[in-house]
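Hey L., structure's done. Input below.
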Amino acid sequence: MNGLKLAFRQIAVLFVVFTLSKVALRSLPGDPLEILSLENPRSVSVESLKKEMGLDLPFHRQIVQDLGRWTDGNLGKSILSNEPISKLLFDQLGATVRLTFLAAVLTLVMASFLGTLASLKSFPFEVPGILKRLAPWANRISEVWGSLSPTLSMVWLGPLLVIAFALEIPIFSVRNSLWLPAFALMFQGVGFWCRAIRDQLILAYQKPMIQSALARGIPTGKVIWKYGWIPSSSALTSYFLNQMGFLMAGAWVTEVVFDRSGMGTLFISSILSRDYPVTESAILVSSALILFFNFLSRLAGDQLGARS
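Output:
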């Protein structure tokens, strides 16, 4: 029942975004469709454009008409190319999803390694020698990286990584490389996740069961996994899923900086060319994805919390 209530709330928020997008289009100064009709290579009249976008109808009737079309999967057509918007979005969304999930995997692997290693600095018992020496360094790296993460703008970070790892040290290819944009997106967010994982594990280490497990002779690695990671998985999974939508939004910016095809470049090009239906659809699709991951986050948090 809680899942149904949450789903209805997410749908209500999406409806608000949908309505506000229609209000914004009607509130544009002047008559943008008249300018667009003059620039449009299809030589479409203003009246045709208004009819195509539902602007010839009263506001409430436009909302009903567009909602009906959206529920049928018909997002309309691009003003410039006359292609179905659903096809345009589907073609570009795949590239954005691949970039987002590769960046998410890289972020999880790096943050899990550094965060776990940094947490050993506060482990209640003695850890093996090499881990004991590495833990303070990992903790310092997590602190510095986590503090720098909010300042790492992709606008300047992306070109710096291209210069460093594609030109000076040619590890990645500048053209058609998925790894360099994913690495840049990972580099931007992994510092925060290092600290989040470290702090959750340190909280788990403070529970009495850790000390009793170690006193029974259970190996350190098994203790960290069973009594550190598993109890922390509920909060970490919930928060990571919640951040996936924002990671995808970061992928949009990354695509523009690295000049890759995807939802980000489609969105910017539609704004610059005044292709309003494509812009509106891209905003709604991104909002739906953020709300979907937020829904999964809440659902996973409740399920994992009930089990642990």
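The chain has a mean pLDDT of 80. Residues 220-257 form the longest helix (38 residues).

-- N.
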